[in-house]
Amino acid sequence: xxxxxxxxxxxxxxxxxxxxxxxxxxxxxxxxxxxxxxxxxxxxxxxxxxxxxxxxxxxxxxxxxxxxxxxxxxxxxxxxxxxxxxxxxxxxxxxxxxxxxxxxxxxxxxxxxxxxxxxxxxxxxxxxxxxxxxxxxxxxxxxxxxxxxxxxxxxxxxxxxxxxxxxxxxxxxxxxxxxxxxxxxxxxxxxxxxxxxxxxxxxxxxxxxxxxxxxxxxxxxxxxxxxxxxxxxxxxxxxxxxxxxx
Length: 246
Hints:
CATH topology of the largest domain: Lipocalin
Strand content: over 45%
Shape: rod-shaped
Number of strands: 17
Number of helices: 3
Helix content: 10-25%
Structural class: alpha+beta
Radius of gyration: 35 Å
Distance between the termini: 110 Å
């Protein structure tokens, strides 16, 4: 009887201990059996202009439909909201000099279901660019003058134009037939800085020209078709067509 009594008592202790272990291990068991969330899509624009505000968005699936938490990180710019599956972000402001090269911004989101100890994350990059920089890069190059008019009258003028992203140099020679000989009657060289005046794009816009040492900049409109750069100065009625040299 004593043997059976001790065995029964021992059995009771084992059962109680097992229940205690099972009860205390429920949280750990849930962690072990809980699947982490899965990121189905991550929407970040490939590029934006300096100062623009855009939306970042992530779509997540969780097998157990747990409550999810979100944390966003960016290497530049400003997050208007830092939590949630959708956040607003403002790119860095355009510098004082608008002709600035593009810069890359990294974006990362962390998602956690509150139970699993494992975060899931996704990252991408955004190219922040200056529209002015892109347009002047497109226009930069060496050109040859193919047509020159003053208030609709065509003149015999030859010349070249060279544009960088910020400067220009222009060589221009006016010619006239004297007797039977075409002679150069004036030869001018001009250099300086230029900038685009908003609004503008790669096809058309307004340019402000400021010669070196000059205090009176001039304005011209431009059109660009990928080969010919046409300029028109409304104040003087001068129009010029330049062809890109390769």
